[in-house]
Amino acid sequence: MQAVGVVVEYNPFHNGHAYHVQQAKKLTGANIVIAVMSGQFLQRGEPALVDKWSRTKMALASGVDLVIELPYVFSTAHAKQFAYGAISLLHAVGCKTFAFGSEDGRLQPFLDSFALIDRNRALYDALIKEYIATGISYPKALQQAYTTLQQQFPGAYIDLAKPNNILGFHYIEAAYSLNAEIQPVTITRIGAGYHDAIDEQSQIASATGIRQALFHKQTLQHVAQFVPSTTYQLLEEWQQTYKAFASWHAFWPFLRFAILRHTPEQLTMFPDVAEGIEHALIKHAKNARSFDDFMEKIKSKRYTWTRLQRILTHIYTGITKEQLHAHVTPSYIRLLGMTENGQRYLSIHKKHMTLPLISRVAAVQNTMLALDIQATTMYQQGLPCQTIHDDYNVPPIRK
């Protein structure tokens, strides 16, 4: 059985994701799709719309055969570490190929861009430091350093100002750094752009657009045409149970408490809290009227919205920089769900996997896994209805 891997958040699973799954199988000839999926908190530093088990059900109903969890350490990290964790897991589970969506849709420019940076690594790193010293954010410093390299060594390179291209580049970088026998394939992103609002004349919308519609319209009917029927049903079940979808707006009272219960010195225990931002966090948490009001007060050129949200995620979950930095590579494969074909794949390939497969959390003691369990506990506490679904009492989902 040949497997193709995909790296996903499915926040929520929509028609564009279904297309991605279909194309991944078509372009690689694979008969198994394995998704490495973020857990309860995501790469842009926010809680997932619905929990990882609901999103696993969405995936299994729409063509994915195995869903494994990207640990919190990587799912809430910047793009390079996020990609490294994900590709490491796909390699460990036996994928021979991985497929990623991109705005460009051609593989060669990604390979050329990687070669450009890899050949000029010392210069690239020096340029990044030079641009950061001017006071701009780290992502902007990366972009400017890359632009400078392009000007010095002209060629047909990828546009790294676009979000899916950025992740695609880091997936390829991770595969090379691992010396992994896993080949990349890219699929052109169709329909809406990453940040676009929904277009009622289309069947494809971005996950961002779908979430915005759900939060602003407060009705599922506005997104029905953009998601598979199973996704719609699962969103409907979630809304009936919890009355609201997860977001920082819903979690704001708990996040505010988490900030204010710490002194400025204690806040510096958390990742990326430095340069006095700890004082601003406390000052504005005291008087902000809402999460958006709070964010507008604390964001700056150096502290972007995404960087701040990652900081807030760690403060909310209580996971410190010491805990995060203790882990640099995945130490297990956490199974969230499988189809019959997925189960058959595991039976054939399990003995060849390079990391232990975890299906029962209670049977394992692992410090990285403990952070996932802690993140789930805190995610659950932010929901208005305390229906407990935790890592100990939810077994892998079977379809």
Automatic annotation (TrEMBL):
InterPro entries: Rossmann-like_a/b/a_fold, tRNA(Met)_cyd_acetate_ligase. It catalyses: cytidine(34) in elongator tRNA(Met) + acetate + ATP = N(4)-acetylcytidine(34) in elongator tRNA(Met) + AMP + diphosphate. It is found in: Cytoplasm. Its EC number is 6.3.4.-. Pfam families: HIGH_NTase1. SUPFAM superfamilies: Nucleotidylyl transferase (SSF52374). The keyword Membrane does not apply. ATP binds at residues 7-20, 101, 164, 189-190. Keywords: ATP-binding, Cytoplasm, Ligase, Nucleotide-binding, RNA-binding, tRNA processing, tRNA-binding. Signal peptide: none annotated. Catalyzes the formation of N(4)-acetylcytidine (ac(4)C) at the wobble position of elongator tRNA(Met), using acetate and ATP as substrates. First activates an acetate ion to form acetyladenylate (Ac-AMP) and then transfers the acetyl group to tRNA to form ac(4)C34. Belongs to the TmcAL family. This is tRNA(Met) cytidine acetate ligase.
